[in-house]
Design brief:
By secondary structure, the chain is an alpha+beta fold. The protein has one domain (about 5-140): 3-Layer(aba) Sandwich (Aminopeptidase). About 25% of the residues lie in helices and about 30% in strands. Strands 1-2-3-4-5-7-6 form a seven-stranded mixed beta sheet, with helices on both faces. Strand 3 and strand 4 form a beta hairpin. The longest helix has 11 residues, at about 75-85. It binds coenzyme A (COA).
Length: about 140
């Protein structure tokens, strides 16, 4: 893909509606995550992709989405790559819980066992659906 015109940048308040609209394409929402936690992929003034990082116990990637007409052109990889390259010092891992594990595997993420999932996330530890969960928990080792 020609990524020359593609900018990956931190989101600002004015990106709230474009991000909300993009996520709604996939029946996703901002999950209570503030717009300042998001980055966007912008081309010709249009938001074509977004993703967020939530820092609780560990940094976790949330709400990644690429406009349906622009998928499979490397935008999702650029968004993940931005977070990996700009992780704060001292961070060893970037986590994700996802329904698209193949995409994250291609990016170098590796799957975690349920036993690790329950140690990492309180909401997983308290969940009755853990075994049948549609989300794969994965992590990427950050290179420093
Ligand atoms: C997942 C997503 C963010 C990837 O962004 P993208 O810009 O299409 O990704 P890239 O172009 O960098 O990489 C594409 C590759 O990732 C993989 N991939 C992308 N989406 C995938 C999915 N839903 N399931 C499995 N693999 C996927 C494929 O290997 C694909 O390569 P291919 O097109 O040659 O088959 C995007 O497809 C998307 O918005 N999906 C819908 C929302 C979603 O499922 N978000 C994840 C929720 S955790």
């Amino acid at each position: 893909m020609n990524t020359e015109a593609m900018i990956i940048r931190k989101a600002g308040e004015s990106d709230t509606e474009p991000v909300r609209k993009l996520l709604s394409t996939y029946f996703l929402n901002m999950e209570g995550v503030g717009i300042k936690n998001f980055i966007v992929a912008e081309s010709n003034g249009r938001v074509l992709g977004c993703a967020a990082i939530v820092e609780n116990k560990y940094p976790e990637l949330h709400s990644i989405a690429v406009h349906p007409n622009h998928r499979s052109r490397g935008i999702g990889s650029l968004l993940v790559g931005y977070f990996a390259a700009n992780a704060p010092d001292g961070r060893e891992w970037l986590y994700v819980r996802t329904t698209a594990p193949r995409f994250f595997e291609n990016m170098g993420f590796r799957k975690l066992q349920d036993s690790e999932k329950v140690k990492l996330w309180d909401d997983c530890a308290g969940c009755d659906m853990l075994e049948g969960c549609s989300q794969s928990a994965m992590r990427l080792q950050l290179k420093k």
